[in-house]
């Protein structure tokens, strides 16, 4: 089937001598990748998770919050797994605690 392109074969040569310390270089690269993974990915993610857990643990009635969906409101009731948020005078919505993205400074909802 090689009518148009001739087959290319590698030239047979003597086996190349291994570079001195080649095993150590690979080990150093592996350790370098682990360190980069830790500082660029794992550590910041763990820090964000810890901050979010503290945020959810410190929720109180009267806090002004924003959900992950972008709904802003005032906390009316806090239970173990759910939070009731007052969006307007007559509308209260029930959310899981994990859906709370951030707390707002007091008075932010009045300014909006």
TrEMBL record:
It is a single-pass membrane protein. Signal peptide: none annotated. It holds the Pfam family YajC. One of its GO terms (cellular component) is plasma membrane. It comes from Pseudomonas lutea. GO terms for biological process: protein transport. It comes from the Bacteria. Belongs to the YajC family. The chain crosses the membrane at residues 24-42. Keywords: Cell membrane, Membrane, Protein transport, Translocation, Transmembrane, Transmembrane helix, Transport. The keyword Transcription does not apply. InterPro entries: Preprotein_translocase_YajC. This is Sec translocon accessory complex subunit YajC. Its main location: membrane. It is found in: Cell membrane.
């Amino acid at each position: 089937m090689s009518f148009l392109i001739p087959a290319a074969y590698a030239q047979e040569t003597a086996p190349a001598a291994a570079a001195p310390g080649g095993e150590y270089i690979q080990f150093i690269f592996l350790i370098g990748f682990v360190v980069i993974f830790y500082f660029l990915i794992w550590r910041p993610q763990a820090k964000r998770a810890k901050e979010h857990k503290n945020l959810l643990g410190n929720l109180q009635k009267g806090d002004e919050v924003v959900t992950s969906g972008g709904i802003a409101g005032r906390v009316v009731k806090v239970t173990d797994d759910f939070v009731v948020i007052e969006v307007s005078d007559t509308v209260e919505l029930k959310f899981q605690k994990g859906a709370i993205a951030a707390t707002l400074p007091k008075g932010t909802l009045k300014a909006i």
